[in-house]
């Protein structure tokens, strides 16, 4: 393209801009070149967390760092920050489901009390229990989230304390098989190590 033609195009563009003084002329180069902005539908792998209200994408390192990066402060929400330290909800739900599949629908009553009958349905189901385990900062919060009776909560606390103290006899007394002790202990320790008993 000759320099005269380029100059003519620039002059024509300038004429349009001056002819429409109240109009705003913008050119989004990101859209033109196919780049995604911070508010795109998908987040970049380096900034995988998407704020639910404003759609901004932020790096995982900015989650729970004490400084809100989402417009509503969601990245500093106490439930989110607790869940970030715990096993993923999907992993917890899968673990609970495998125990129920192996031992029957009332097996988790041994851990969570009488409301844990029928595959945890009286507590809202496996998914709800997994979410409560993930989001509840402490065992007290967990009990409140699922409306556990005080006696069931104290029993659960004794199970966690036994695991924390290395007393596998407590787990065996609940009927947990030797082949499952390691997995159950590992799972419960993950919760204990993230402040569940505090």
Question: Would you kindly provide a written description of the structure presented here, covering whatever features stand out?
Answer:
This protein is an all-alpha fold and 198 residues long. It is built from eleven helices and two strands. Strand 1 (49-50) and strand 2 form a beta hairpin. The chain starts with a helix and ends in a 6-residue tail after the last helix. Residues 1-39 have low confidence and may be disordered. This is IDLSRF-like peptide. Keywords: Disulfide bond, Signal. Residues 1-19 form the signal peptide. Pfam families: Ldl_recept_a.
As laid out across the biggest beta sheet, the strand order is 1-2
Q: What overall form do the CA principal axes indicate? A: elongated
Our count of helices gives 11
Helix content: 40-55%
Rounded mean pLDDT score? 80
The span between the termini is: 72 Å
Biggest sheet record: 2 strands, antiparallel
Strand content: under 5%
The helix/strand series, from N terminus to C terminus, equals: HHEEHHHHHHHHH
Structural class, by secondary structure, is mainly alpha
Backbone CA Rg = 27 Å
User: Could you name the ranges where pLDDT drops below 50 across 5 or more consecutive residues?
Assistant: 1-39
Number of strands: 2
């Amino acid at each position: 393209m000759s320099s005269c033609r380029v100059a003519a195009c620039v002059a024509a563009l300038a004429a349009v801009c001056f002819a429409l003084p109240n109009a705003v002329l913008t050119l989004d180069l990101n859209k033109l070149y196919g780049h995604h902005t911070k508010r795109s539908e998908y987040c970049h792998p380096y900034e995988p967390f998407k704020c639910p209200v404003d759609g901004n994408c932020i790096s995982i390192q900015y989650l729970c760092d004490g400084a809100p990066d989402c417009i509503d402060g969601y990245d500093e929400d106490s439930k989110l920050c607790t869940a970030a330290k715990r096993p993923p909800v999907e992993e917890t739900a899968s673990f609970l489901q495998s125990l129920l599949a192996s031992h029957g629908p009332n097996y988790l009553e041994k851990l969570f009390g009488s409301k844990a009958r029928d595959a945890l349905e009286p507590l809202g189901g496996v998914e709800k229990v997994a979410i409560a385990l993930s989001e509840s900062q402490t065992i007290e919060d967990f009990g409140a989230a699922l409306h556990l009776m005080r006696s069931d909560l104290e029993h659960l606390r004794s199970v966690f304390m036994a695991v924390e103290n290395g007393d596998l006899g407590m787990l065996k007394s609940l009927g947990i098989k030797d082949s499952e002790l390691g997995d159950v202990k590992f799972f419960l320790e993950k919760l204990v190590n993230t402040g569940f008993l505090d």
